[in-house]
Amino acid sequence: MERAFAADAVDLSVAGDWEEAQIEMGWKIARETPIPEGGWFGAEAEREDLIAAALRAEREQSRPSASKDKAKTKAKRKQAKKSRQKNRKR
């Protein structure tokens, strides 16, 4: 990994620099050098905000609304009832 960062083969906007990657993996506790001027995401607080916003958006997209759940459940019950009536022995 270190060689990939040294060869500029890693997009810094995704993972930050090599030192940032080491912190994320738990190999380092804190930065020893300052974040480069302008940084890859700007200030650290802005980066945290971007991550939090992305997680919120992902959660909202993956969670179906309650009304859709109710409609789906109702449709299943209705179809099951129709099937039972159709399959009754006469």
Distance between the termini: 72 Å
Secondary-structure content class:
mainly alpha
Strand content: under 5%
Number of strands: 0
Q: Helix-strand pattern, N to C?
A: HHHHH
Biggest β-sheet: count, sense, barrel?
Answer: none
Instruction: Tell me the Rg in angstroms.
Output: 26 Å
Tally of DSSP helical segments? 5
Overall body shape: rod-shaped
Number of domains: 1
- Low-confidence spans: none
Helix share of residues?
55-70%
Mean pLDDT: 79
Topology of this protein?
Elements: H1 2-6, H2 12-15, H3 18-24, H4 44-62, H5 66-86
Can you characterise this structure?
There is one protein chain. The protein has about 90 residues and is mainly alpha-helical. The chain has one domain (about 1-65). It contains 5 helices and no strands. The chain has helices at about 1-5, 10-15, 20-25, 45-60, 65-85. The longest helix is centred in the C-terminal third of the chain and has 21 residues, at about 65-85. The radius of gyration is 26 Å and the shape is rod-shaped. The mean pLDDT is about 80.
What key attributes describe this structure?
mainly alpha, rod-shaped, 5 helices, 90 residues
Summarize this entry quickly.
With 90 residues, the chain is mainly α.
